[in-house]
Amino acid sequence: MKGIECWNIKDVDFPKGNRVEQLKFLLKYSILAPSKYNRQPWKFQIVGEDIVNFFVDLSFPLPVADPFRYELIFSAGAVLKSFLIAAEFFGFATNTHRTENPVIQQSLHLSKRLDKEQLDHHIPFPAMIQYYSSTLSY
């Protein structure tokens, strides 16, 4: 997806049945996460039908603007949280695991869909497609 096309996502388009397509759909919400300097320093790998590996892309360091990689870490946290919020909204239980592999920062495991009674109805899902970021003066 290019430009603002990625913001044209609707929950009613959630695919039925095919788990891999469902994971790809959840990732569409994840990439909407804010990132400082608009770096979007993340990559994903779908493994099987219930695992998404998350990678931090270190190939474009910002030694002056982000010498200690704080902004990179905050951005990584935002994309992970966005995935977890979307997964829960669509009824999935999730577990995150920090891996021993230095390249794969997190492994996200999805399990069976939650029953309606188990869903957290206070999660901020609707706000995910209403992010606003500006470097202009207030």
Structure description:
The chain is α+β, with helices and mostly antiparallel strands and 138 residues long. It is built from 2 helices and 4 strands. α1 (19-30) crosses α2. The model has no long low-confidence stretch (mean pLDDT 78).
Say which CATH homologous superfamily is assigned: NADH Oxidase
| Estimated helix fraction | 10-25%
Output the structural class: alpha+beta
User: Proportion of β residues?
Assistant: 15-25%
Do you know the CATH topology? Answer: NADH Oxidase
Main-sheet strand order equals 1-2-4-3
| Highest-level CATH class | Alpha Beta
- CATH architecture annotation name: 3-Layer(aba) Sandwich
Overall residue-averaged pLDDT value: 78
Order of helices and strands: HEEHEE
Low-confidence stretches: none
Number of domains: 1
* Strand runs, count: 4
Which terms summarize this structure?
alpha+beta; about 140 residues; about 20% strand; four-stranded antiparallel sheet; 2 helices
Itemize the secondary structure elements and their pairings.
Layout: H1 19-30, E1 42-47, E2 51-56, H2 70-89, E3 92-98, E4 104-113
Antiparallel strand pairs: 1-2, 2-4, 3-4
Helix pairs in contact: 1-2
Question: What's the short story on this structure?
Answer:
The protein has 138 residues and is α+β, with helices and mostly antiparallel strands. The chain has helices spanning 19-30, 70-89, and strands at 42-47, 51-56, 92-98, 104-113.
